[in-house]
């Protein structure tokens, strides 16, 4: 093979591209168009009940995917990081009047600082033991938030945020909140996409795949494991603050319990570990899943002539099926929905281009 | 000695800030006293000096008072039967094991108890006896991890992907492409590492270690489990890395015949003790080697 033709700069740039495949670019444009144009036609129920929580949970799932999917360090504390972000946000904005963009950064930074402490055990332990250590952190963090009087969240008190203004704009309609969440999610997604294909992202994946070999190649475990936990918590913290400012309008401890952490872990397993796209697919799946169950159950009851479906039955069916789905994905498609997309889009791409190039073979885990 | 050199002769660029050993007349290096002049340290200083290393696990002495020197530009082979302590030696040099006693000096400076990533920072790189590639990553990404210590992009550089870090990424990808060309693995450059054959995975691992531009490269049984052709190819790449890139190499091998042709210097271990040290010819005719080593394998 000719040496000169092997690595022209254009090919290297193509290797480095944010979305190297044409089909991913097209899909990204389509998703953006839908995300921008569709919401005005959706009612408040869909915006408040599905779209906004979906976006916010995507941000948090993306963070969790960085530590668990990319760096391979399992964490059950993401819900608690969201709580740290939520209360930091509501105090910074509500009590001290710090502008919202800065407040979001402070909320993320505070969660990252807590994340560094929670992540410290990962230097010595992994797997199941790390899971238990982060589980303990989940409980301790929520306990601290409730017990420190300065925070003002004692005995299940909910702290409301004052009206949300960003650069003079009053964000109180569901549609405005949605676009606000979309902006934040888009910025954080681009940052994560860049990061995961950079030197830092490769160091994380190297730790995930072979930590001994990674350290022999000069990757510092201390630095990159803590960095993964901090970035993960940073995303969680911003997501928590967004719950306050773009969705619920208040911070309350009960929302960030263990259930949320497990749900987030379920999202990235279903969506795809180690995939930015997977974080979104998982969050979308989890947001739409209860609605699909509800519709399906109502239809089944209607056909079988039964009574009206009770809320308890629905909730039980949801939990059962969600658990079953996680097991299903772990066994059948451990790389999640994002891998299904890559297989499907790979075959479409091959059909579209007359000369499929050999360097298009997808890696097992693509960042996007 | 080096069957069919086909390397296209495109020299790898030298990274600024550290001077690799000159691509010298390595085959005739310091053993006979005609060592090439090295730039940073005086001629007499060996690149790596291992002094009286002992390593025990519980009551078992894996290594017992082993000493030897590695000269710049040479290929040193450490051979010995199974359980002789060869891999333990490699793990001590790269910082994965802490020796029970003894001293290791690299470029004249003592560095016995450094962490693995600090050892990597000194310019020591290695491959593993059992494959240790990053399985889910592509060949390019695997080799790019080898560039880790030469890159600077951090959290914000990587996340924002602007100016400096973008340019840096491009330069290092260029370097990786040259490694890929050097090892003749262009056609698998984007393939996930775990889908490759055993022999190719070994070659990619060599590429990852070479990408670090090491001053000292340790290869732990690079030919194990390969067929004859693959062994010949690997020997050629190792010789090329030594001659063309000027890399000092420690070659750990179980199979004595493989290393005799390309080694400048052979150290023989048996039951954790050094039993011979010299040129391949000297070692091959050494009575204790024939007795201990050959006896143990037959």
Structure in words:
- The complex is a heterodimer of chains A (368) and B (298).
- Chain A is mainly α and 368 residues long.
- Chain A is built from 15 helices and four strands.
- Chain B has two domains: 44-123 and 214-298, 3-Layer(aba) Sandwich (Rossmann fold), CATH 3.40.50.300; 135-213, no CATH class.
- Helix content of chain B is 34%, strand content 20%.
- In chain B, strand 9 and strand 10 form a beta hairpin.
- The radius of gyration of chain B is 19 Å and the shape is globular.
- At the A-B interface, helix 2, helix 8, helix 9, helix 10 and helix 11 of A face helix 2, helix 3, helix 4 and helix 5 of B.
- Chain A: One of its GO terms (molecular function) is branched-chain amino acid transmembrane transporter activity.
- Chain A: The chain crosses the membrane at residues 26-43, 100-120, 127-145, 178-195, 226-248, 260-277, 284-301, 321-341.
- Chain A: One of its GO terms (cellular component) is plasma membrane.
- Chain A: This is Amino acid/amide ABC transporter membrane protein 2, HAAT family.
| Largest interface: pair, residues per side | A-B, 44 and 56 residues
Q: Which consecutive residue ranges of chain B, at least 5 long each, have pLDDT under 50?
A: 1-41
Strand sequence of the main sheet of chain B, in spatial order?
A: 6-7-8-3-9-10
- Described by its quaternary structure, the protein is heterodimer
Beta-strand residue percentage of chain A: under 5%
Major β-sheet profile of chain A: 2 strands, antiparallel
TL;DR?
Chain A has 368 residues and is mainly alpha-helical. Chain A has helices spanning 3-6, 9-16, 22-37, 44-70, 78-95, 100-119, 128-147, 174-196, 199-209, 211-216, 221-248, 258-271, 276-304, 311-332, 336-352, and strands at 159-160, 165-166, 169-170, 250-251. Helices cover 71% and strands 2% of the residues of chain A.
């Amino acid at each position: 093979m000719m040496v000169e033709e092997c690595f022209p700069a254009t090919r290297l740039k193509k290797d480095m591209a944010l979305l190297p495949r044409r089909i991913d670019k097209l899909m990204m444009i389509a998703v953006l168009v839908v995300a921008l144009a569709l919401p005005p036609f959706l009612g408040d129920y869909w915006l408040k009940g599905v779209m906004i929580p979906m976006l916010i949970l995507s941000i948090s799932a993306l963070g969790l995917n960085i530590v668990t999917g990319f760096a391979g360090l399992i964490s059950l504390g993401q819900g608690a990081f969201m709580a740290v972000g939520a209360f930091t946000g509501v105090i910074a904005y509500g009590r001290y009047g710090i502008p919202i963009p800065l407040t979001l950064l402070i909320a993320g930074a505070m969660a990252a600082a807590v994340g560094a402490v929670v992540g410290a055990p990962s230097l010595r332990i992994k797997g199941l033991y790390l899971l238990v250590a982060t589980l303990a952190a989940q409980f301790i963090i929520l306990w601290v938030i409730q017990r420190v009087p300065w925070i003002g969240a004692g005995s299940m008190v909910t702290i409301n945020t004052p009206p949300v203004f960003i650069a003079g704009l009053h964000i109180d309609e569901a549609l405005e909140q949605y676009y606000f969440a979309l902006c934040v999610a888009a910025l954080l997604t681009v940052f994560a996409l860049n990061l995961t294909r950079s030197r830092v992202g490769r160091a994380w994946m190297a730790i995930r795949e072979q930590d001994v070999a990674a350290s022999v190649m000069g990757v510092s475990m201390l630095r990159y494991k803590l960095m993964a936990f901090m970035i993960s918590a940073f995303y969680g913290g911003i997501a928590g603050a967004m719950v306050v400012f773009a969705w619920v309008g208040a911070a309350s401890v009960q929302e960030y319990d263990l259930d949320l952490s497990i749900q987030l872990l379920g999202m990235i397993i279903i969506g795809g570990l180690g995939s930015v796209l997977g974080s979104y697919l998982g969050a979308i799946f989890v947001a739409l899943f209860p609605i699909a169950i509800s519709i399906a159950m109502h239809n089944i009851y209607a056909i079988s002539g039964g009574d009206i479906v009770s809320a308890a039955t629905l909730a039980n069916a949801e939990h059962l099926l969600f658990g079953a789905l996680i097991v299903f994905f772990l066994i059948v498609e451990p790389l999640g929905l994002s891998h299904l997309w890559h297989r499907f889009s790979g075959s479409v791409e091959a059909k579209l281009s007359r000369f499929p190039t050999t360097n298009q073979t997808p890696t097992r885990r693509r960042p996007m | 000695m080096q069957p069919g050199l086909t390397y296209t002769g495109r020299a790898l660029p030298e990274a600024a800030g550290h001077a690799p050993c000159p691509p010298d007349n390595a085959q005739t290096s310091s053993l006979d006293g005609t060592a090439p002049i090295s730039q940073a340290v005086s001629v007499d200083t060996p690149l790596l000096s291992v002094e009286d290393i002992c390593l025990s696990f519980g009551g078992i002495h894996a290594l017992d008072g082993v000493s030897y020197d590695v000269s710049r530009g040479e290929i040193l082979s450490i051979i010995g039967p199974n359980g002789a302590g060869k891999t333990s030696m490699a793990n001590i040099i790269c910082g994965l094991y802490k020796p029970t006693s003894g001293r290791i000096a690299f470029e004249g400076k003592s560095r016995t108890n450094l962490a693995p990533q600090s050892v990597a920072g000194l310019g020591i790189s290695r491959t593993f006896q059992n494959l240790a590639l990053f399985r889910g990553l592509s060949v390019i990404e695997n080799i790019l991890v080898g560039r880790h210590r030469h890159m600077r992009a951090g959290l914000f550089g990587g996340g924002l992907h602007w100016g400096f870090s973008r340019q840096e990424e491009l330069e290092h990808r260029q370097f990786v492409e040259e490694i890929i060309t050097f090892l003749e693995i262009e056609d698998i450059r984007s393939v996930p590492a775990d889908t490759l054959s055993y022999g190719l995975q070994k070659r990619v691992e060599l590429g990852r270690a070479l990408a670090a531009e090491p001053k000292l490269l340790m290869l732990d049984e690079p030919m194990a489990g390969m067929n004859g052709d693959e062994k010949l190819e690997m020997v050629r790449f190792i010789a090329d890395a030594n001659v063309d890139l000027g890399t000092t190499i420690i070659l750990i091998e179980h199979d004595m015949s493989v290393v005799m042709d390309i080694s400048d210097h052979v150290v023989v271990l048996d039951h954790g003790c050094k039993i011979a040290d010299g040129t391949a010819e000297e070692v091959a005719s050494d009575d204790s080697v024939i007795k201990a080593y050959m006896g143990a394998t037959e």
